[in-house]
């Protein structure tokens, strides 16, 4: 009986992976708004009723793809942080940002699913929140290590922003100064703005040497957070 259950579990894993792979093919060809469970089932030679046992609705399949994309992007950022653990925080920060960009350029359709236009009629559930936070947590941890180690040049905090800064700090990094929490959120949004401009073509005929441009921009974001350059 255990052997039978094991075989069924393996078969379910394989079929689930095949469904998601075909769905990603459809994303690349048609976009998320046109993702269809019936079309996925047809391409896989499955009955629609059989596919519904794996994903009861299109939204369930979209959620699985979104979580996979966030997790893959987060894993790339975490690996970059681990691989550069011995470097100074600013260099580590830049390496993480470059890993985010590299993943996005290698997986533009999956990136578009999580950072492109919202899918009409779809609302992401709570299950997507933790995967979506992985890159931000890597950036926060990089700043945290700098703050407790070599120090950070805290950016100025306008008086009017102090209440919001205190709320942000309590939400995202209660152990860090509010000014740093604000700077991190700004840098996080600017990082994905840079990546999105490149992935979605806004840099076309504007920025030519994009590798050098991005490396310099990512480093500048780290300095704006207060990470100190090499002395």
UniProtKB/TrEMBL annotation:
<dbReference type="InterPro" id="IPR001647">
    <property type="entry name" value="HTH_TetR"/>
</dbReference>
<keyword id="KW-0238">DNA-binding</keyword>
<dbReference type="InterPro" id="IPR009057">
    <property type="entry name" value="Homeodomain-like_sf"/>
</dbReference>
<keyword id="KW-0805">Transcription regulation</keyword>
<keyword id="KW-0804">Transcription</keyword>
<dbReference type="Pfam" id="PF13305">
    <property type="entry name" value="TetR_C_33"/>
</dbReference>
<dbReference type="InterPro" id="IPR050109">
    <property type="entry name" value="HTH-type_TetR-like_transc_reg"/>
</dbReference>
<dbReference type="Pfam" id="PF00440">
    <property type="entry name" value="TetR_N"/>
</dbReference>
<feature type="domain" description="HTH tetR-type">
    <location>
        <begin position="13"/>
        <end position="73"/>
    </location>
</feature>
<dbReference type="InterPro" id="IPR036271">
    <property type="entry name" value="Tet_transcr_reg_TetR-rel_C_sf"/>
</dbReference>
<feature type="DNA-binding region" description="H-T-H motif">
    <location>
        <begin position="36"/>
        <end position="55"/>
    </location>
</feature>
<dbReference type="InterPro" id="IPR025996">
    <property type="entry name" value="MT1864/Rv1816-like_C"/>
</dbReference>
<protein>
    <submittedName>
        <fullName>TetR/AcrR family transcriptional regulator</fullName>
    </submittedName>
</protein>
